[in-house]
Amino acid sequence: MKDATEVLLVVDMQNDFMPQGALAVARGDEIVPLANRLARRFGHVVLTQDWHPPSHVSFAANHAGRQPFETIALPYGEQMLWPVHCVQNTPGAALHTDLDIPHARAVIRKGHHVDVDSYSVFLEADRRTPTGLAGYLRDTGVTRVWLCGLATDYCVAWSALDARAAGFDVTVIEDATRAIDLNGSLDNAWRDMRKAGVERVQSADLLT
Ligand code: VGL
Ligand code: ZN
């Protein structure tokens, strides 16, 4: 897999998405050792971080009378409201300390615009503002994007779909992800990814 045309994206392996975190993903910590092992199979690894300002529009606490996991209408569409999470430069936004990927080449931060969320590491939730990752990957000769990390049904799925839309071949390593799974979001995410031509594999298929 040490092929210059392939990249592994390790998505949002941050403390706030771990079991003790502000937006805990069940068993999110279980995949840290697996992400480390997978990363050793790739010459090109990119990490991502959800990276919100304290006043971010996706935080329920910034909307009077609103609770986490309610939705609101924003100019770009429906927005899920979340507990305060991954605030820039806080311990909750830091990568899990056991994540051990010394050769990671880049860290892409997303969700930093105060009035726009970004589950996708390619395109923000306004569906117009690019992060620059597609251009960086094209420039470095990448044609296939592999994904692992958190959460399957939000940042991993949205990133996988946008990678397809940007013209990359895309594979999600299912057992190296964990999901939030709200109101059927996990089933919907896999349906959308299958329709878009995202491939779904298990880590054993790579770690032989
Ligand atoms: C995520 C919800 C809010 C994720 C980020 O990383 O999947 N989910 N912000
Ligand atoms: Zn977020």
How would you sum up this structure, described in words?
This is nicotinamidase. It comes from Paraburkholderia bengalensis. Belongs to the isochorismatase family. Keywords: Hydrolase, Metal-binding, Pyridine nucleotide biosynthesis. The chain contains four helices and eight strands, in the order E-H-E-E-E-E-H-E-H-E-H-E. With 208 residues, it is α/β, with parallel strands linked by helices. The strands form two sheets. It has a six-stranded parallel β-sheet with strand order 5-2-1-6-7-8, sandwiched between helices. A two-stranded antiparallel sheet has the order 3-4. Helix 3 (152-165) runs parallel beside helix 4. It starts with 5 loop residues before the first strand and ends in a 7-residue tail after the last strand. The chain binds pyrazine-2-carboxylic acid and zinc ion. Pyrazine-2-carboxylic acid binds at residues 12, 17, 50, 82, 119, 150-151, 154-155.
Computed structural class: alpha/beta
* Named CATH topology: Rossmann fold
CATH homologous superfamily grouping = Isochorismatase-like
Q: Give the number of DSSP strands.
A: 8
Q: What molecules are bound to this protein?
A: pyrazine-2-carboxylic acid, zinc ion
CATH class: Alpha Beta
Determine the N-to-C terminus distance. Answer: 12 Å
Question: Please, how many helices?
Answer: 4
Task: Give the C-alpha Rg.
Answer: 16 Å
Which spans of ≥5 residues are poorly predicted at pLDDT below 50? none
Percentage of residues assigned to helices: 10-25%
- Helices and strands, in N-to-C order? EHEEEEHEHEHE
> How would the global form be characterised?
globular
**Sheet with the most strands, sense and barrel status:** 6 strands, parallel
Strand content: 15-25%
CATH architecture annotation name: 3-Layer(aba) Sandwich
What is the average of the pLDDT values? 97
The number of domains is 1
Strand order of the largest sheet: 5-2-1-6-7-8
